[in-house]
Model the fold of this input.
Amino acid sequence: MKHASPLQLYVHIPFCVHKCHYCDFNSHERCEPAWSDYQQALIAELKQWANTPMFMGRKLHTIFIGGGTPSLAPPSMIKAIIDAASHYCGIHKHAEISMEANPGTADAENFRAYREAGINRLSIGVQSFDATELRWLERIHSADEAIQAYNIARQAGFDNINLDLMYGLPGQSLNGWLKSLKRAIALKPEHLSCYQLTIEPHTKLAVRHAQNPYALPNDEHALSMFFETRSQLSDAGYQAYEISNFSKAQLKCQHNDGYWLYNDYIGIGAGASGKWDQQDQGITRYSNIRTPERYIKSIIEHGNAVNSEDKLTGEHAAGEAFWIGLRRSSGINRTTFKRRFDIDAWKLFSHELQKWRNSDQLAITDDFICLTETGLPIADEIAASVL
Ligand code: SF4
Done:
């Protein structure tokens, strides 16, 4: 193989106290999740992947435990997963090991135990500091509980914290959004993710919106929120390293950045997916069975829970890597891209992209291709116009 990217591990914890109506993640309400069975299945699956030729002998550069709500999980389970990752794959000394937490489940003792288990980055799903917005989103926590969760995390020793926020909610004014953003900045987290609400198909929100449309922001209003977010965060010392992600110096989320760099990853758990590079510049990708109980059963009976597997040719993989990479503020490194796919990144879509270059929404140098400040908010539109 010409290239072996840093290897990452994603662990999916699919359980939630309540399914938020906008959520299209693979999350399931369960009163009493079968933690022990799920833990055993995760570790059995990890062992199986770690022993395959494409992942064998490759130490993990990052681990991300996401969900669902991982902060519902017993700390002993989080420790067992990290120990298994160390045992079966090996973990780099300075690996980023992230976990997601819902403020409605924050517990000081658990947070301390997660930290002791090896979690060194916590991502807290705050979404908003406005009580009405939190109710509309169907979050299980208040703004005060979000602040409390942040403080508990700090006291537990977390020195790398992300806060997730959401803007573009129905009826939300620019000032209303900036109030939440400023409260988040005042807490001084190392990282902020600010996503615009999108109505995903097959969610309860999509059904409700179809029956009785919500007053979502128009394009102009959404753009003003996007640019004001960037401006406020830049003033507060955060670097925008991806369309929706901002960090203090050197503290970008290495795991997510690895996805945008098209790195290989093992995914374990219900609905998780993984990907590896093939010898011929193509890739293989798999997705697991989504229902937790069926996932556990499949691991017990067959040793794996793969539901689907896709292979992409080198040309398709290069195209996908191009569009994912364009999300990064620094864009695509043409030398690295050429080394990996044996094709110049610009030549791939030069015909289709010329008009975006002419309108200064795409910039090209000998070394990089990247979206400009005005191109970034329409990244999806540009991709859709080409694909
Ligand atoms: S807490 Fe997160 S994962 Fe769970 S339903 Fe809400 S948005 Fe989805």
User: Anything to note?
Assistant: The chain is about 40% helix and 25% strand. The longest strand covers residues 91-101. The mean pLDDT is 96. The CA atoms of residues 131 and 341 lie 49 Å apart.
